[in-house]
Write a structure and sequence with these properties.
Layout lengths: L2 H6 L5 E2 L4 E4 L15 E4 L2 H12 L3 E4 L2 E4 L15 H14 L8 H12 L4 H8 L4 H7 L5 H14 L4
Antiparallel strand pairs: 1-2, 2-3, 4-5
Helix pairs in contact: 4-5, 5-6
């Protein structure tokens, strides 16, 4: 997810039961995705576990007979105000520097794309999961070294043809 998507993420868009995050526009709050398109992405098991732990600690209130988060945003200050995207960028830089790692806030998106492709995920699926507008964008800016994947693919093709 992009930093703005994270800053705007609301508990109502986190479906822990189904393991999905709904990245949605909330026009009345001035919260929009980059493409202005809503999308649903499955959660990685670690993300699901961490969000479940966070949700368990969120202050709640009773609304229509059920407990709901007191504040709508997942990533918020104690007073309920959501983190700003720029704060996320600066905090990421500070944590990276403290860890002795040279990284930008954009590096996890590049890494996700490259690692997914190395694992054999096709670029169209990578595009959809990452919320990119086209496969061409993924190919141009978000594809690292994937030669081993291509070699494995050719081996599979040769074996299927009995040439291996």
């Amino acid at each position: 997810m992009r930093r703005t998507d994270l800053a705007n993420l609301r508990w109502s868009a986190v479906d822990l039961d189904k393991g999905a995050i709904h990245v949605v526009n909330v026009p009345e709050a001035g919260e929009f995705t980059k493409s202005r398109k809503n999308r649903t992405i499955p959660m990685h098991p670690i993300v699901r576990r961490e969000l479940a732990a966070m949700r368990a600690d969120v202050p709640t209130m009773v609304e229509d007979g059920r407990a709901v988060p007191k504040h709508p945003h997942v990533f918020a200050w104690p007073d309920g105000l959501p983190y700003k995207p720029d704060w996320i960028t600066h905090r990421f830089a500070a944590v990276s520097k403290a860890a002795g790692v040279r990284a930008s806030i954009h590096d996890p998106r590049r890494s996700f794309s490259t690692l997914a492709q190395r694992a054999g995920v096709d670029r169209m699926t990578v595009k959809d999961l990452g919320g990119w507008s086209s496969v061409a964008i993924v190919e141009k800016h978000y594809t690292g070294e994937i030669k081993p994947v291509l070699e494995r693919a050719m081996d599979l093709i040769a074996r299927a043809q009995g040439v291996a």
